[in-house]
Fold tRNA pseudouridine synthase A.
Amino acid sequence: MPRYRAVVAYDGSGFAGFQVQSKRGVERERTVQGELIKAVNQMGKNPQPAIKVVGASRTDTGVHAFGQVIHFDLPFDIPAEGVRKGLNTILPRDILIKEVLLVPDDFHARFSSHSKRYFYRVSTQDYVDPFKRVYTGHFHWQLDAKRIEEALPDLIGEHDFASFAASGNETATTVRTITRADVIVKADEQELVFIFEGNAFLYNQIRIMVGVLLEIGTGRRPVHDIVRLIEVKDREQARYTAPAAGLYLDEIAYN
Amino acid sequence: MPRYRAVVAYDGSGFAGFQVQSKRGVERERTVQGELIKAVNQMGKNPQPAIKVVGASRTDTGVHAFGQVIHFDLPFDIPAEGVRKGLNTILPRDILIKEVLLVPDDFHARFSSHSKRYFYRVSTQDYVDPFKRVYTGHFHWQLDAKRIEEALPDLIGEHDFASFAASGNETATTVRTITRADVIVKADEQELVFIFEGNAFLYNQIRIMVGVLLEIGTGRRPVHDIVRLIEVKDREQARYTAPAAGLYLDEIAYN
């Protein structure tokens, strides 16, 4: 059975996250994975057993993706470009398959990944733009971008990010490596865009990091509070989690 | 009673158009006007008789606005800036009051207007971007932008636009004056943006004009078919109406 890898974009505002949520085997809410499974199985002519779809990242309710990566096996050979077109014809319009490649059997969307890039859009308007309400986090307190820029390098490197993991986190270790942490100030659009790159991230880690950075920006936290938070390894110290709407899974890199 | 004029932006994707649709006095669908009436009456402390909200343009289901204009009378004097903030606090997040001005009693959002500007976004991707699906019209046929640019001046001036009015049009005359008709080609974003300005427009006129221009762009219609369509005054000749999702009421000018 040939294995395919696909790059998937979706508008997260209409989904209860990426992962299928089932209760007693009954799918209860609309998920990205649920729609992908339906489409892939329709394309594979409803085979038994059903084709599985494995995603690289289980994005939460309301989180968007420009470059989620999935893999799946089809019961027969179809050219990759035909798979892309076929799936796009079947899928609802809030999911788009951007690229499909035929890959070796041992490729795994999650375990073969080498790094991930996310960005987070913050709208700093006094009242939120109607066209941004589900595409940005909204934060209307006065921010000093210089303080945020000074704080960002504190995240870079291999650290124990236990203070930045939400309680749903189930990974064995909370040590992660961040290789990029930037902010772009778009003054005209009254937006800040954070960019983070790393080997992997803990549950809600980026939204908690953004929350801390925004509190640093207002002066509520000292500029180098991230150093202290890494030290204390206490999730109670960083409670504000920035809203899901601003988060985008941008790109996943493979070797 | 002081009269206020407000500039209103809304994401049309969650509304059954601007105008309240009632059946036996019961509001049946979510409309922009319905939400504005609720907010203004809440701000006016639920007066009897209820405060009316008059809009400049009855945008259709799915049509967006950056600059809809409304007027309403409040039973007491509140500074205009306080009205703006108060309404934004009450209104749902897909409607935003951008500006409020105190105006003379004879100001009328619809009848005092002098010209209107709309734009229309067309996505020309093969499959539609999930983030554009409710914010652009999608047209994936090959377009020659030069043909469209050559056709656009044919719309300028005072013409009988009967061929460009949908069947719901109820105005006494179908003569209108268009002062601007442009297209911007955004090659990077695979988008065309049409801009139209005129004294007023007929029901669905812009969406029908865009439909004709796109058919000129594909070569299905001759470049100067608009001259013929203005001549024949026959709405059966221009059947394709571009989707509501791409249309934006951008700005309304007053004397």
Chain B has two domains: 3-103, 115-254. The two ends of chain B are 23 Å apart (CA to CA). The mean pLDDT of chain B is 94.
